[in-house]
Fold these 4 entries.
Entry 1:
Amino acid sequence: MRKKVLIVTQNFYPAIGSAGNRMRNIFRLLSEESIEVEVLTIEPSYPNKSMYQDQKFWDDEVVNNSLDKIKRVPIKSRKFTNRILSRLFFYLEIMYRFTFELFKRRKDNYDYIYVSTPPIFIVFSAWIGKKLMKSKLILEVRDLWPDSLIGVQTMDHKWIIGLFQKLEKKMYRMADLIVINSIGFKEHIEAKLKKEKTIIYLPNGPRKEEIIEDKGSSEKFRVIYAGNLGLAQDIGRLKKMAQVLDSYNIHFDVLGYGMKTDSFRTFIDESKLSNIELHEPTTRQESLALIAQSDLSIAFLNDAAVFSTVLPGKIIDYMTCQTPVIAGVTGTAASLITNHHTGFVFEYRDTDKMIDKILELKEQPHKLELLRNNCKKTVEDHFLWEKNIKELSKFLK
């Protein structure tokens, strides 16, 4: 008898970013493994809902033909801000609407409810669903919350943080299985558990057909930054890097979105940086194509301790496109880049050294070729979805 799984997630196709793409891959691949999969999610709205009126974002025909398996609930609170109360009401509304939908399905026979964080509030919706349906609960952890709130300095009320940390422990302990997308999360989670629990490492990565086989070459040396322009990234350092690269006549593509985007756009205009191009958010396919045109990529995370456990999805995207990484990161992400020789890692504040390395590699095409080959091999060996989904599929069956 086929197993039946309900995925409960805030982020799902066609929502841009690694989270939406991740949940789409899990939905498609588990379905291909003869598992009956349904999805409960919200209407795509990040960074703005109107963006998804463009049909180019709805480019996955397999998912488009599975709309009977996907329930999208409307959310009134769609404003993304750095105000903690605004975000809290947004998350609580999602929790309420998911709980209501799960209550309506209380007589359905799901073997598993697969819930993805952040935010943690929807986990408690899923827990109610678990009780109502007598299902097992699989918890996917994509972010160490509330530690990440502390890391971006959006929350300094100790009593609230203390409450959230208690909810975090409860969340880990009530799950039947925990899935993580960064191996750096494992030790943190195990320390919160009362007893040993199965933890599966399922990293972000590409599908086979997304791996760039032939990099090609462009006339002009190009550098790219792709990803969030938010609180966890240091936009000040990115601005400095843009200014210096422009002075060396190096083309710098920034494919960014988030609450700091307008600030970065204003900086480019006021500084009259002719070699810097800020791109609008686009589809995954177009994003990978842009990354593939670049010779080097940039990754930043601030130096808060929590971010040492994170493996940003964009770093894997860079390597998927054979684009070596110049990174100001620590911990898990730094180890991956260093151990597999897919780029160079620097201290978070060493912007000057990062720029020097870019200028050095610009004159060393043979070294760049070696780094590109390492990127491709690393992704094929460790990050292919088709390989990594097998462990989760085996557990479900």
Note: The chain has two domains: 4-202, 208-382.
Entry 2:
Amino acid sequence: MLSTSVIEDVLTAALETGGDFSEVFVEDRYTSNLLLQGGTIENSLSGRDFGIGIRVFKGLQSVYTYTTDASKEGLLKAARHAAHAISGEKIIQPQPLNKEMITCAHPIAMKPRDIEKFRKADVMRKAYEIAKAYHSSIQQVMVRYMDEEQNVLIANSEGKFIEDKRVRSRLAIQSIASDGNQIQPGFYGPGAHKGFEFFENLNLEHYAGEASRIAVTMLSAEPCPSGKFPIIIDNEFGGVIFHEACGHGLEATAVAKNNSVFANRIGERVAPEIVTYIDDGTLENEWGSLTIDDEGEKTRKNVLIENGILKGYLIDKFNSRRMGMESTGSGRRESYRFAPTSRMTNTFIAEGKSTPEEIIANTEYGIYAKYMGGGSVNPATGDYNFAVMEAYLVKDGKLGTPLKGATLIGNGSETLQLVDMVGNNVAHGQGMCGSLSGSIPANVGQPMIRVSEITVGGSKEAE
């Protein structure tokens, strides 16, 4: 991607005004996006994006710049531009680059760039037909296909020189149901750190059928009661609440500046003993997984909360300086246009001992949130607000009427303390996570859990 000699010269130029660390991030990305609507491919876009990011540290100063000019002259100009924002007395020389060979932890069988577009379109049409045929009330189905290949080279003044290839694929299915008086959506968006083999092995009957089933079910749903109730949150994308309301609060981006309720609390109890919270970038071929992070560090399994005790944070290279703690392989960025910072990969509540049947049977009255929708959170306080895409009333230990209009309102650290049952059916959902370093693929997950009380915003008073 770039010669070793050019990289060495760029790293040296970035330190010529007294910086104590410099880094080069080279990215070459290929993407393919298709949209099918009304049975027809409406959009088909493929592209390539190439660029180089250059970063310089001086103590707790950090400067970042990027360029698409890969000539030696262009790179030296960008490096010196970053260097001029740094002022130091001692000029240091970079360590000799030592290329590190790694084995890809997420094997790819079929590179998407080698696959003809008609095969990609066939996957979309099959999903469309399954979703559309589910029920006569399905009025519209949209299917989005995405694949990407991201090649990166990371080198720094400490002698690191490493390359990596990431390949991801995803299918997003949205169904719209209508009974003439109202419309209801349903959505499913499976994805993985895999090539086209992901689509060949994807259970389209399940995913496309679920998108339409959700939409159709919600047509007959009754208004959700409002008030404070025990809430059962199902597995997979149910983990989005703790991803947003707790996970971001465990990133060094917030912790290093004391902008988190979890700052300076390692060793304290922050959850019941039945809760263990993990971020694991090594899970084979999962959507949020990486062999190395965007700073060249190997990803790892980071146990953040163990049996209710706060054990650690997600830390990137720059914030490790602020905190006096080692990087946890958590430095991530959307692209070369962003400086990396601490981010999640695959974050989930670990499996517990209760079965889903036991959790429901032990709930006298409450709300069962089967699928979560979108929401918002204040990362500094952990206050959140999440819509529920599919919900049910729980009464006398049994699932009852489907409910619409449910919104869960609370505080992440407080909700964490109120988890009183954890199931044994861990599963992951896929999404895109936005933060300071852009939008990145991330898994959220958990088994079914029960929270003893959450405020529910609904459209009618509780009986």
Note: The chain has two domains: 4-219, 222-461.
Entry 3:
Amino acid sequence: MEDPKRIVQQGYDQLGSLYRTHYEETNPLRYSNWLTTLAQLLPAKAKVLELGCADGIPTARFLSQQFSYLGIDISPIQVEQARANVPEALFQVADMATLTFSRLSFDGVIALYSIIHLPLAEQPALFKTIYQWLAPNGYFLCITGADEWTGVDSDWIKPGTLMYWSYADAGTYRSWLIEAGFTIVESQFVAEGNSGHTFFLLQKKA
């Protein structure tokens, strides 16, 4: 199989603004609820990192109104769109698995349906790294897989667009997150069609 990260980058580049259309057709209110929950927990002027920011809507637009926000995405096209959509926020093209930040750099980290685009073998180490990036009492909100699966969709959203995912099951994610040091504040199954994902709200206790 082609390099999974190249598949993800090229897929989101090819989709461009169609990814936003897809999001709007699913459940945008779900995102609003998650973002409101996180915002209510963060201190004033918090520093927030988003892994997999796409075009900046709605997450960057919402969080940058209250907080110092940095969005990361592997797709240059999505980052270009994010900079146009949310000019007051900061964005960077990068592979989330190879990012380097100082310890205690952020009060909050958010990753909605993005870590599951990484090869599964890289995900536990990223959770440990995120824990190090967070300040004491910081929060990590993420959406992971619910059932184990790794594969490629050859016609995702747009015919001919390849996309790669790699999931563990919810119990495995729970174990990895606890092993990384997180306290689980809330977790729940997020139903989507005939399957779904897992919502985690986590905290780095002081």
Note: The mean pLDDT is 94.
Entry 4:
Amino acid sequence: MSNRTVSVWTLVSLIIGSTIGSGIFALPQNIGSVAGPGAMLLGWAIAGVGMLSIAFVFQILAVRKPELDSGVYAYVRAGLGDFIGFTSGMGYWLGSVMAQVGYATLFFNTLGYYFPVFLNRWVLAISVSVLSWVIYWGLTRGLKQAAVMNAVTTIAKLVPILAFVVLVAFLGFSRDTFTADFWGSGMPFTQQLKGIMLYTVWVFIGIEGASVYSKQAARRSDVGKATIIGFLSVLALLVAVSTLSYGVLSQEELAALPDNSMGAVLEAVVGPWGGVLVSVGLCLSVLGAYVSWQMLCAEPIVLMAEDGLLPESMARHNANGSPSRAQLLSTVVIQFFVVVFFLSSASYTAMVQLATIMYLLPYIFSAIYLVLLTAREPGKDLAVGVVASVYSLWLIYAADPVYVLLGALAVLPGTIVYVWNRRRRGERLFNTFEWVVVALVCVGAVVAVAGLADGSLSLD
């Protein structure tokens, strides 16, 4: 695409395509496991304001700092220093890696409904591993995600979602079922609200990508317009799927569904063909997303290596133009998490929660950077930064502490590499603020190791 030729509607389609992923297919079960209809609706209202503010953080920063184009972590590094920028980039990379395992698990679990051999945990682990290494082999030989694949996967996920909304709304929704236990009497309302939060973030991962397209927009104002239209379109689909599901099955029934819970809800309304329709869409969508995200997994590593935060060798490309070393590292770590998740019997839900915690790092620090950047300029941009910062920090508070602690443990090995690289380059390790962050990461990692050792922490 040439510069400044992308229309507002093309931007909208790009935003919707990059945001709608595997999460929406598991949404009925995910939300049904933690909240009743009332908490669900309020949760989406909060998430709507919060995630839109985060989307605008990246859009505002893209306009204010057009020279910073090294991914979402670049803003954090510019405002809060090398180590916090590195931690954000590492969090985004680890979130992408963990998400890969979650995507593949959902893919093979869905196949397992029709081919039970994939429900065997060892077969599932081997299948995820083989898929990851086959895609790595293709990427190192110059495989690109073709426009045809983008088109197929976009249609594959939107057709069953729209079919779900229409069919359930007209054939399966029962007001009595929806209102039977509206406030989720089985658990405190605040606990329900906290429980739903990380799932609402997971299904919005990618909304920050709107800022990537700002340079290609025909008009800069189109980016803000497209962000609102694209965001509200995605939010409408997410709220529709969530709300309609509560009108078909009770909260307890939704919580007991398999990972491909959208398919199970539609099957309850129209019969087996509804489940097949959603399952085919899910498999095609997730497979396309798996290829593109494994390709993108290497990007934060390459960018941080080019910026001197990791060894320069990690940015090298092979003869096919592939960042083979970064992709090898990403695939090795994907394989590591396959072993960790499957040995610990981690569920798809646990993978999602941990990946979301990692994604929150660049969100939080980017929002704080915008506040610092606009602190002396009272107005809309400052308000957006404040809302996004408060929302992001509240998400960490709302998260299960086990995922926060395990997130600290996941970041620690990268910190060791960072220290080694700084010493090799003869650069200062940390400033005072960074030492505080390092101390918190180390304490969290130690607590996580102790909890895993005595069994008080797990990913079950």
Note: The domain at 8-398 is CATH 1.20.1740.10 (Amino acid/polyamine transporter I).
